Amino acid sequence: MAVNYGSKRIVVGAHYGTRDWLAQRVTAVLMALFTLIVLAQVLLSPGPVSYDSWSGIFAPQLMKTLTFAVIIALLYHVWVGMRDVFMDYVKPVGIRLSLQVFTILWLVGCAGWAIQVLWRF
Q1: What is the Cα–Cα distance from 34 to 63, expressed in whole angstroms?
Q2: Looking at residues 3-8, what average pLDDT do you find?
C-alpha cells in the first residue's frame, strides 16, 4: 500500500538560506552607513585628525552605543559567513564542530574586548 504524504511533507532546511542571506545584506548596509557617518565626522572636523579629535568622535554615549551595535552586526556577519564556509568546505563533522566552537569563542571574546575598549572597564 502506497502512502501519500501530500502537502504535509516536511522538508528540512527550506528557506534557512534566505534568512542568512538577508542577515548578511542588512548587517553589511548597517556597517556601510556607520562607516559613512564616521568618515563624515572625520572629514568635517576642523584641523588635522589627532588622538583627541578621534576619541572625541566616540566620546558621546550615543556614538558608543551605535559603535557597539555595529560591532555586534559585524560579529553576526562574520559568524554567518564562517559558518557557511565551514558547512560547505569542511566535511569531517568533528573538525567542523571544533572550528565552529572556536569561532564562537573568538567572536564572544571580540565582543568583550569591544565593550572594554568602548567603555574602558
Answers
A1: 10
A2: 60
